[in-house]
Amino acid sequence: MEDLMQFLREEGISEDVLHEVHEYVVSHPVSDAMKQRIPVPHFMYYGVNVWEDALCALLCGKNILLVGEKATGKNVLCENLAYVFQRTSWDISFHVNMDAASLIGTDSFENGKVVFREGPVYRCALNGGFGILDEINMAKNEALAVLHSVLDFRRVIDVPGYDRIVLKDETRFIATMNYNYAGTRELNEALSSRFVVIQMPPITQEDLQRLLKKQFPDMLDKYVKQFALLFLDFQKKCENTELSTKALDLRGMLDAIDLMHKGLSVKEALDLGITNKTFDIYEKQLIHDVINARISSKLLPSEIFQ
Amino acid sequence: MRTYNVVEKRAVNQIWTASGEYHFEPLFLAIHKRSGIPNFYMNLVIGLTYKYYGEGVVNQLFDRWRGDIHQSMLDDLTWLMLEDIVYVKEIVQRPVLHELREQYAKNFFASEYRLSRQEWMSKNQLVYTMQVSHYSRILNRKQPVMTMREKQLSDVMNIQEDIEQSMLVHTILGIFKRYDLFDGNKHEKHPHVFHLHGIFAYIMTHFMPTQLVKTDRVVVMRSSQIDEEGEGFLQSKNASNIVLKQHESDRTYIEKCFGRSIYSNKKLQLLEKQICTGNHIGCHVWITDGVKDDTEKITAEEKYLRDQAALQEKRNREYYYKNIALHKSMIYKLKNEIENSLLIHQEKNAIVGRSGTLDKRRVYRAVYANDDRIFLRSEEETSPLFSVDLVLDASASRLSFQEVIASQGYVLSESLKACHIPVRISEFNSLRGYTVLRILKSFQEKRSESVFQYFASGWNRDGLMLKEIGDLLEEEHGDAKEHLVIILTDASPNDSFRIHASKDNPLGCNYEDDAGVKDAAKEVRNLKKNGIRVGAILFGSHDASKEARIIYENEYVRMKSVDQLANAAGFLIRKEVASINV
Question: How confident is the model at residue A302 (pLDDT cuts 50, 70, 90)?
Fold first, then answer.
């Protein structure tokens, strides 16, 4: 955790906020049995303003809703926040068939008896963890009504026929949503009013370069810049709907560079990490064109790294 | 916004990638003449020119000699200079440019051996010499043999300095002026125009190609012919002006041109009695599936028309398959988008099973009847949520876009089919008082190939067409609870058959402008009253938005070019899906 605190210090987050985070961690210890549920982040989220907004909101006991396009780092930030607050986290991926039972819990049948099987929100509330409600607007609003009492000032879960449980003080919910995804719907006011909303900006060239440098310290600066610009080229193409968002895959690009690091040819690595994610021949041509306008087809992996 | 085929679309994307801007239409696209594939490096150069100098300066520069007798030479020389200028500006940002540039220069010399004699002859000698000099310099080769003037020009054109945006036009024009290539004034070649009257006009219009506007005769013409000549359509009167026999009735003519009616005579009469009222008194309706009676004898003109229609179908199909990669890509994307929207509204049927959500009412069966099927699992509803009627305006104003419209109709049909949404595609136009609704693809047809039969001709009486659609939906609605009618329109109803005098309109009037718009708006409201959702894809000028708003209220989407038809329809469908309350 100290490494992330140090990172935040370097990013310029105020000492007061970091001190409060530390206080929070110390006053809400996690049992050894649950420690394995605390996520260890693979990447750092870059963006001082968003960090400060999120830390302050969580310290004030608010639930947060991260709204942003694909590849704006919503899930990375969720993971980072759970880690910096040292909270156990429950990842709940929302889908169209999500219902109250899959969030709170459902009846089950065990040894001839009907018993209550706890759902992730219920367990999160009992353990004072962070509940990550991923792509919350994929679910129908009716299914989410059950969360109202969990997310507002009442902070309770009342399951008919069972106990009414009060959320532990340290419990927080972080929801993510991508407004423009096809298949998503608008959150109703009742639900969105229970969150503070943070707009996630697209990653900047500078932050992208820092991320690449952090992941691949031996990568030459000129290629760090070219790969960052390549990603931004994809981003522009997607924004203008010339490409589907399949090519806008930061994880895919990092995977591709990782493969180059292992010695795979640049072209093949980019195909595996990015191009092959689309099955549309025309789109593949466009992706190749974007790559060729930045990265030489003759470039050897050994030339990219020191 | 112009319509791009698959190669042009890729080329324009290369330009946009380099410029980082997507909101302009480039003046130039670089495409290899022989192979027909985009010229990657030159497209990057075009894009970079837009990046550094902006659309305004680029337009201003090339507009200076647009139409000049030396335009081609001046364009080529300018691009040689711009290549140098933007290369110097961009190389630090984009090191790959160095390799791409060298490869481009090598390809230039390699292609010299592949040129035919005609291609050599068509080259401008000065441009060619400058190109050889330019690419030799890039490859550090020996310079070609040049006259003193050519050498000086080549040196001046090798601009290695950073030219500011405000200085670009001035610099290039200065070079052209100094070497007497362009003095700043356009020297245009004007076409010879003759005005003929009387007998001369009569003779010439029978021997020369003529341009027509909307008529009450069916003429099937190729889109590219219109592209070449601008608005209207060209035809050789000599070839197709076969005088109609006076005794041939309009009805027979309509039947021979579009196919027999799907309704019996009696049903048709009844329908006309019901819907040819108000503004449409005296009009006729014709609803057909395009099937023609092959046993009947046909005249030479009818045979000619059928051959032309078959030819247009072939052209539509060829256009689709020529750009198949782009079209398949559109089908794939549209299908995913619609499918995603539908997911939210998919109704689930709960059925008893061995896993799923516990059904407390059945728990006793596990204990007392040893029946472990005490859970409920969901099964997707298979019946479609709604059906779609795509009605394409097939009046003569669509002549320039027949292939594109047919291909887009096919794309939409295939996308909806993949989402299990019943779709019917029809075209409509009006001739000689008949408003013809031709069903190209019915709800039952599995294949969408028949959409390629689309061809444009005649006028468009939107109000009566909407009434016909209402009737057709009563007859056949594709087994869905909800219906969405999407109309491709220019929001400009226009028919040669006048609105007859009535109590409200004592003098009668032409079916156009305000009268046409009001009539179409009324019929849209009537359809909506009957629970049918109506949306429009507006294809036309900005000015038409006002009329579209009157007719379709907010249920319309304006497309900039006709190749966006399927996407625009997809947008309307998603909007409608979102509003459907299951």
Answer: very high
